Amino acid sequence: MGSMSFGWRSFDVTAHLAPMGRYARALTRHAEDAEDLVHTALLRAYERRATFRRGENLRTWLFAVLHNSFIDGWRHRRAEDARIAAVGRLAAPHAEPGQDHALHLREIFEAYLSLPEPQRAAFHLVALEGLSYAEAAEILDVPAGTVMSRLSRAREMLRRMDAGEAQPARPPQLRVVGGSHDPKA
Question: pTM for this structure?
Answer without folding.
Answer: 0.56
